[in-house]
Amino acid sequence: MSGKGKRTSYTPAYRREAAHLVIDTGRPIAVVAREVGLGEQLLGRWAGTVEVDETYIGGEEPGLRGGRAKGKKALVGVAVELKEPRGYGRARMAILRDGSAASLHPFVTEHVEPGARLITDAWQGYRGIDKLGYTHEPRSQRAARARGQDPGEAAARGSPHRLPGHALAARHLPGVGR
């Protein structure tokens, strides 16, 4: 009888520690993977960077103003893998019930490997996500403005928080935002 062996299960703490061997030391994933006996792709997923945001998607409706107007629009969670120095990898999207932690945390845990560096906006629904095994880096446009920085200019220069949710969705969904 032939077949693949049992799949190894790793705890979130182990994933986080392995990811930090890459993130904190700056050593190549291939070298660290060999040292700890992991596959390069697996460690790459754990040590990767993912940007998560949420946006409303749907048609314009008469009398409703702004991107967050209720109606036929759906709130969509967007998770996009960032490839350094520039570029994007896999993208995942799902309809969310609302923007609360009760909706956002399950979206993240379903689509992002524990141990990954997670970049979000400063929305309160992401609070506590670091307790689920992620290195969380919230980015605040308001704080950037208070420091005298232009958040749009930083995005154009290729800062890690490059695009808001609607731009991430537009990049990965045909017909959105065009």
Low-confidence region ranges: 154-162
State the helix count: 7
The global form is: globular
Please summarize the sheet with the most strands: 5 strands, mixed
Helix fraction, binned, reads 25-40%
Q: What structural class do helix, strand and pairing data support? A: alpha/beta
Element order, helices and strands?
A: HHHEEEHEEHHH
- Number of distinct beta strands: 5
Q: Remind me, CATH topology of the largest domain?
A: Nucleotidyltransferase, domain 5
CATH class of the largest domain: Alpha Beta
Look at the structure and give the mean pLDDT: 77
Number of separate structural domains? 2
Question: Going across the major beta sheet, what is the strand order?
Answer: 3-2-1-4-5
Provide structural commentary.
With 178 residues, the chain is α/β, with parallel strands linked by helices. It folds into 2 domains: 12-45, no CATH class; 48-172, 2-Layer Sandwich (Nucleotidyltransferase, domain 5), CATH 3.30.420. It has helices spanning 12-23, 29-36, 40-46, 101-111, 141-146, 151-156, 165-172; strands at residues 49-57, 74-82, 88-95, 117-121, 135-139. Strands 3-2-1-4-5 form a 5-stranded mixed sheet, sandwiched between helices. Strand 2 (74-82) and strand 3 (88-95) form a beta hairpin. The longest helix is centred in the first third of the chain and has 12 residues, at 12-23. 28% of the residues are buried.
Topology:
Blueprint: H1 12-23, H2 29-36, H3 40-46, E1 49-57, E2 74-82, E3 88-95, H4 101-111, E4 117-121, E5 135-139, H5 141-146, H6 151-156, H7 165-172
Parallel strand pairs: 1-4, 4-5
Antiparallel strand pairs: 1-2, 2-3
